[in-house]
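Hello forum,

I keep getting stuck at the same step: I have a sequence, I want structure tokens, and every attempt I make locally crashes halfway through. Rather than fight my setup again tonight, could one of you with a working pipeline run this one for me? It's a single chain of 168 residues.
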Amino acid sequence: MNRLPIKTDLGVCTLLWEGDRVAGFRLPDGREPRVSDEHSAEPANAPEWVLALARRVQAHMAGDLQDFAEVPFDWERVGEFQRDVYRVALGVKAGVTWSYGQVASALGLPPGGARSVGTALGQNPWPLLVPCHRFIGADGKMTGFSAPGGIKTKLKLLALEGAQLFAE
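Reply #2:
Ran it on my machine without issues. Output:
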């Protein structure tokens, strides 16, 4: 697997790819990546589509919001239910939040399906690109976020995107 560290306004993200598909994405964890890793790519060695995606990630993190719905994800890395959840998530645009229950309803799941949706979003191998940070509890509360930084990172991403976090 190839990896490209991406310096952003929020820290260093990492884009992982194999062939012509995005295999994973990592949000900043506060540590600089080991660029000497044998699978790390210098920008000069990465394919143009990877570099273009890296520039879009940088733009998004700087406030020039991007839609990543057309990214060539390696969907084979996740199960069918996860794919369904992530495709719904890709339709939720920057600045908008949905409850886990709304996703469950969009998928035609029975009552209680929100928990399965939350589990799938918590296993998202492409946070930010597949915007799992845009999903909240039915009562508007921020719930778990499995990416580095947890709910603090989720709040930063939502604030960056202009989401209204607190209703009057």
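The chain has two domains: 2-61, 75-160. If your local run keeps crashing, start a new thread with the error log.
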